[in-house]
Design a protein that fits this description.
The chain has six helices and eleven strands. The protein is an alpha/beta fold. It folds into two domains: 180 residues, SPOUT methyltransferase, trefoil knot domain (Alpha/beta knot), CATH 3.40.1280.10; 52 residues, Beta Barrel (OB fold (Dihydrolipoamide Acetyltransferase, E2P)). The strands form two sheets. It has a six-stranded parallel beta sheet. It comes from Archaeoglobus profundus (strain DSM 5631 / JCM 9629 / NBRC 100127 / Av18).
């Protein structure tokens, strides 16, 4: 699994909340395109907008027909500018027998049956221990009557989002810092890392500058994935796209 770690100061150069929302949407798109399984927002005391970023990322990842269950928040005021992800979990409302879908447990019956909204008018009965309000993944067994069962997706299904401290992120295995100060990685090195956490800096400071300010040291790998860059600075969302594209290509090339 690929994980991406970005600072809570990722939007420090933007003042307009609409543009901030759109930029988070670009990050969401990059991560979805290259099948990132987890996005970690590490706290940067210089600007802690971790909750804003988390709310927007999670909203973008949620299927459209389930977004009505997300509480109204100020952080989602401009969610309408988000580019759609169109990942496999974002199904149309028309059901197909055998397909896997996301749902939300709307209520729990007296007999323990969970009644799940899977994007159609009727609620689907489900044998599960999921709590009310929880998201569940189900397979459609029948459309008339509506019958579903718990399932695990066999394809990329989206990303999870969490907030963490940078020191905890750096303590994981197979952590890779991204910086123009580092060496260009060899193809064999990229291929060797099946599970990797790619750590990015902010628009104002690279990872090493943030670490130095926080008094953190690490012996993690470090990659320069944009050698000989033709501009003074590479924006965070651009660095994420470039790095993930290289990792994805190298993993598939013979």
């Amino acid at each position: 699994m690929i994980s991406v770690a970005i600072p809570s100061s990722a939007l420090i150069n933007e003042n307009d909340p609409k543009i901030k929302t759109f930029k988070v949407g670009l990050i969401a798109r990059a991560c979805a395109i290259f099948r990132v399984g987890e996005i970690i927002i590490y706290r940067d005391p210089k600007l802690n907008e971790s909750q804003f970023i988390k709310d927007v990322l999670e909203y973008a990842e949620t299927p459209q027909y389930l977004r009505k269950y997300i509480p109204i928040k100020e952080t989602l005021k401009y969610a309408g500018v988000l580019p759609p992800l169109k990942i496999p979990s974002h199904k149309p409302k028309r059901l197909k027998v055998g397909e896997v879908r996301e749902g939300v447990v709307v209520r729990v019956g007296p007999d323990g049956t969970r009644w799940v909204d899977i994007g159609v008018k009727a609620l689907a009965p489900l044998k599960s221990k999921a709590k009310r309000g929880a998201r569940v993944t189900v397979r459609v067994c029948s459309t008339n009557p509506l019958v579903v069962e718990e399932a695990k997706p066999e394809e990329y299904w989206g990303y999870k989002v969490r907030i963490a401290e940078l020191k905890d992120v750096l303590s994981k295995e197979n952590v890779v810092l991204t910086s123009r100060k580092c060496k260009v990685p060899k193809i064999e090195e990229i291929k060797s890392l099946k599970d990797v956490t790619l750590v990015f800096g902010s628009p104002e400071e690279g990872v090493f500058e943030i670490m130095r300010r926080l008094g953190i040291d690490t012996d993690a790998r470090c990659w320069n994935t944009i050698p000989m860059q033709g501009v003074e600075t590479v924006r965070l969302e651009e660095a994420i796209y470039a790095t993930l594209a290289i990792v994805n290509y190298v993993r598939w090339v013979e």
